[in-house]
Amino acid sequence: MSEHRRKPPNGGRAGGGGGRRRAPSGGGYGSAAAGGEYGGRAAARRTAGGGGGGRRRAPSGPDGYTGSRSGGYGGGGGRSGGGGYGDDDYGRGSRRRYQPPAKKRFIDYPRSDRDGLKRWLPSWKQVLGMCVLGTACLIGLVGIGLSMVVVPDIAKTASAQSNVYYWSDGTQLGTSQSEYNRQIVELGAISADMQNAVITAENATFYEDSGIDPKGMARAVFNMAKGDSIQGGSTITQQYVKNAQLDNQAQTLKRKAQELLISVRVGATESKETILAGYLNTANYGRGAYGIQAAAQTYFGIDASKLNPHQSAFLASLLNGPGLFDPQAYGADKARNTERATERTQWILKRMTEVKVKGSYPLTPAEAAKYKGLPKMKKYIPGAGLSGQLGYMAEMAKAEAITKLKEQGVSEDQFNRGGYEIHTTFDKKRVDDLKKAVEEAEKKHLNPKKRSEDKYLQVGGASVDAKTGRVLAIYGGPGFENGWYLNNARNGNTPVGSTWKPFTLAAAMEYGTYKTDGEGISPESVYSGANDLLIRKNNGDTVPGPPENDPFRQRNEGRASYREITLDKAMQKSVNSTYVQLGWDIGHKTVEKVTNGLGLPGVGKYSEHNASWFLGTSTPDAVTMASAYTTFTQGGEHRAAYSVTQVKKSGAALPGFDKPKPKQVISENVANNVTKVLNNVVKTGTASKMTSEFGWDPNRPAAGKTGTTDGNASAWFVGYTPQLSTSIVLSRPLNDDIRKKDPAILEQLSKDFPSHLSMRGVAGDPSVHGGDLPTEIWTNYMEHALKGTKIEPFAPALPIDNKIYGGGAKKPEPKPVQTPEDKKPEPSERPKPGKSDGGGGTCPDPLDPACWGTTTTGQDGGDTTTTTDGGTLGGITPTPTPDPTPTAPDGGLTSTGGDTTTTGGGGNGSNKGGLFGGG
């Protein structure tokens, strides 16, 4: 190939040398043998692109980039020759590898001598160095922490302040404090049995361990990471440290870390005897007792040095939570607490025979076997220093405050140690008014010395501001100082009877029945009100009832019977059969939707198919019932009742005490219609004595409902005005004192509610109804409580047009065209109410039971006897009952020729359905 056809790109004249032999370093015109301009073609090809075309790598160029086989940056030409610039930036085909700088960094991370992922993986030297450094820092931090923490001061820990309660106007209501002086005692003044019981139950390795439980702490941290509740330390040392932190009981990691550091220092600097004495002197044993000496005096009336193994085991069981193990804890389930305490006490006694404390067994099996059940304890009187209603109000406010403070990290133990200001909603004047109304009624009607039935009657009451939900007054009983420790205003153990019926009516007007497909029905809807009404499910099947699943029939109070009656009239007369069938037509769950929204108990596990639930088998307390009824005068909005407005500590208000927010439970017009119906109850129904006998001002609108339960176990009246809602309940609840003091009285037990004595014969009445004493107390209180306030009307109720005929009621047939021969008689000729013309005469209101014939009432064994003769309804003469009529199942008299005859001796309850819920 000729030279003019192919020239070397950069060889020849400008090349630095293209031959194998070393050329002059300067390049230029060389000889052909040296790879100059006239060199051979092969040499030219080898030198193309720069100075060197040889195989050996040229010297490094600037910044660490080396030459290449195809020519370097400034490298040599042949194998060792000097080179020139290549035809790329740094030579064709250059690898361009980055060389590390000559001097390495102190911490070579990312690692400069590695590529890709390996650059980010630390070396073993780096890992080891970080571990050593981390351990050193941790040791340093722990050392600093230990030097800063302070060992608890037992004297300071055992001291406590009073909690102060205030009326709504800011004046002091009272203070609560420990009944006993808090006394610190040396370990030698605490019985060895008590020391051993605590060690065997709480920390068997107390004398051997270092004072902390690493596993327990790790478990607590793990639970915190999962979001579970934070667990406390498991050793006695850690529990003592926890008790000592009076001002910080928050369940946080910071506090747990602080607790751990203090425990380590206490375990390292204090003797085991000092730690054990500190724990026993600071622990909470319930009943306001802090420290073992106060506990020994509170429960057994002895010094701590005299506690025997049985007493010691019981007190040790309380360390797991007095509210769970003290049988007399305020507001607790006595039976369940007794069961738990017995089980725990016996377990501790058994442990005392198995665990060696300081090398020996503290108790022999034979000695432990002597102690059965629980030791005998002193009678507990809560609220010492707060007499009358003050004690009940303080306990009620305390329970509410503790519930809300727990959400802020403040424990009940911390609250009980005092220093808190509790501002309540209680109005002093209204509390006095309610107390006076109860005492006047008791003085007027009760005489326990002459009538045994008047013994043990208890009254409960609550008054709630209808517009805000503030609890203004309660009546809890005769007072702690008189031996009644249960707050009757908060006693959720008394059935409410027919005061439950308005909730069923509200559900009917809001959601309708299975016949209306969700459309609410009118209170003018018509149902059967027959006594012994056969109750049916929505599919037409009969509801099973006892005994042996016989078809359930609902009996009315006094066995009163009504053919067809509106829901409004049935509420006024408190007709049980109407509202039981209505409830089934609505459905348990639908009614429960309303009651749940009002803060009332639900159907319950075993009550979903219980017909009597619609008549008030539930047991909400007086405060809850008064609160629920406020919804009807507030356009369907429910405001939960509350008694605490603010809690302060060291002068600073604590969070969590905002006013409850209103919640729309039923529509406004439904609420107004319920009020309209309950206003009729007051005017002409079972509560009509308010105006006719008890002196209620008829110009002041009021609404309410009476309630009386089976066996006369309780009697209620819950009523309201636009400003105030008040509930009153009477009952004779049993307690252990009554059972022990007067066992013969157990013959008066209510057969349906054996936790209550029957009120039959109280105040000389065969049966105490809600329209009697409860309504009288309500009226007297409300007159004084509302004195000087403006008379306000209820909101008007718009008609609900959806009127139905259900529950056995039949829609009247069209009236036939009248001829002169069957013209209606003039008004003067019409039968008077309660009379029949003996023929086909009609009455102005065919739904009025008075049109059905003569009604007579009397008393027979405390029950009302009602007889209805053969009247007519709507011009239609009923078919006479065949003769003879079968004997009534309850043993009552027989009836012939009339529509309905119900007479009766015997009790109220039977397989026909009880009288539960009567007015």
UniProtKB/TrEMBL annotation:
Comp. bias (Low complexity): 31-47, 59-68, 853-878, 888-902
Enzyme Commission designation: 2.4.-.-
InterPro entries in the record: Beta-lactam/transpept-like, Glyco_trans_51, Glycosyltr_51/Transpeptidase, Lysozyme-like_dom_sf, PBP_transglycosylase, PCN-bd_Tpept
Comp. bias intervals (Basic and acidic residues): 810-835
Residues passing through the membrane, by range: 127-151
Pfam family, one: Transgly
Renumbered residue ranges of the record's region Disordered: 1-104, 803-919
Keyword hit for Ion transport: no
SUPFAM superfamilies: beta-lactamase/transpeptidase-like (SSF56601), Lysozyme-like (SSF53955)
Chain intervals with Gly residues compositional bias: 69-85, 903-919
Catalytic activity: Preferential cleavage: (Ac)2-L-Lys-D-Ala-|-D-Ala. Also transpeptidation of peptidyl-alanyl moieties that are N-acyl substituents of D-alanine; [GlcNAc-(1->4)-Mur2Ac(oyl-L-Ala-gamma-D-Glu-L-Lys-D-Ala-D-Ala)](n)-di-trans,octa-cis-undecaprenyl diphosphate + beta-D-GlcNAc-(1->4)-Mur2Ac(oyl-L-Ala-gamma-D-Glu-L-Lys-D-Ala-D-Ala)-di-trans,octa-cis-undecaprenyl diphosphate = [GlcNAc-(1->4)-Mur2Ac(oyl-L-Ala-gamma-D-Glu-L-Lys-D-Ala-D-Ala)](n+1)-di-trans,octa-cis-undecaprenyl diphosphate + di-trans,octa-cis-undecaprenyl diphosphate + H(+)
Chain intervals with Basic residues compositional bias: 93-104
Top-level division of the source organism's lineage: Bacteria
GO molecular function: glycosyltransferase activity
Enzyme class per UniProt: transferase
Domain Penicillin-binding protein transpeptidase, residue spans: 464-732
UniProt keyword terms in alphabetical order: Carboxypeptidase, Glycosyltransferase, Hydrolase, Membrane, Multifunctional enzyme, Protease, Transferase, Transmembrane, Transmembrane helix
Glycosyl transferase family domain span: 170-352
Descriptive protein name: Transglycosylase domain-containing protein
Biological source species: Streptomyces polyrhachis
